[in-house]
Amino acid sequence: xxxxxxQKLTELGLSLPTAAAPVATYVPAVEAGGLLHVSGQLPxxxxxxxxxQLGTDVDVAAGQExxxxxxxxxxxxxxxxxxxxxxxxxxxxxGVFVNxxxxxxDQPEVANGASDLMVALFDDAGKHARAAVGVAALxxxxxxxxxxxxxxxx
Length: 154
Fold this sequence. Notes:
Protein name: Putative endoribonuclease L-PSP
Radius of gyration: 15 Å
Distance between the termini: 15 Å
Pfam family, one: YjgF_endoribonc
Organism: Sphingomonas mucosissima
Helix content: 25-40%
């Protein structure tokens, strides 16, 4: 599957970033019971966190791009934890947290940036359950944060 994912990334004009190191007391991913739990990942572009609040200074399209960048980092963390992506069986669930202004209600549309990438990379195995949640603030003032649960082979 790793070769297939690499090919799809190339077709999409994307590449996996270097998996980000934790900035506090946690690990990027934990494998237990056939599942890989990936900690929340922030959107990085050119080494900097994409910041801002949806409904104030970030529009839905930019939020979708930030969610996509988070999803790329989730995949990079999975690859770092598993050695390669051939062990991925299915993307089980994404949690998408959107830095939202009061009254902003387009979290599902923003979250589609992450969801669409998972389906583009993993086909049917990328179809997942999801939560799209508006929050008042995120670490480093990130626009979006995404965590994941991924089914993996032993």
